[in-house]
Structure formats: structure tokens, C-alpha cells
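Quick illustration, no need to memorize.
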Amino acid sequence: ASRIREQGLDVYGIGQKKTPDAFRKACKRFIFVENLLHQDEPRETPRRDQAKDAIPLINAAMQALDPEGEWFPLGLIGQTIQASHPDFDSRSFGVSKLSDLVEKAGRYEIRRDGAQVQVRRRD
């Protein structure tokens, strides 16, 4: 996968949670097959505080976008996380959308203006 990326091509990977980190990071986008299960199929019950595990990723994305910024477009936060963590998927945290993940994390204020969603830290 790394050699293919070095040639300027995009690599998309699909695999299980046990897929080696090196392969997942070599992909532009990596999708866990566990996240592709139908909603009616039995899945591991998410932990109640699972969304809090995403706080460092969200904070790092905000810091990378603008260290002095207050409000951040949710789409840019997602793109920034995806660029540094190709295997990032909000479904891995027990929610279907990034906006749900940010809301469930409990550390952010969300502002909706039409289709635009913006986020800022509460602290």
C-alpha cells in the first residue's frame, strides 16, 4: 500500500480491527468491516463513554486548523482527522455521524446555521 501511495495513487483499504496499523495508516481511507454490518445484526454494545475517546482527535484537529480559532466547521474537523487517521470512523465510537460523536463527547458546543455545522470547545 505504501508503494502505491508513493506513486501518487490513492489507496482505500477495508479490513478487520486486527488489520496492522502500518497498512491502515498507508491508506488514504480505511474502513473497518465491523462498521459495515447492518444495524439489525448483533454488534458489540458500545461503552457509555466511548465518544469521550475521540476528544483528543477532535482537539488535535482544531489545533491543526487554527490554534487561536474559536469556531470550527465540522466538515473541516472531519477532514483533518481523516488525513491523520485514515481509519477514523464515527461508527467505531458507537454513533453514525461525526456531529453525533462531537455532541456525545460532551466537551463541545455545536452551532447550526442551515447546512453549516460549527463546533467550539466549552472549556
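The mean pLDDT is 87.
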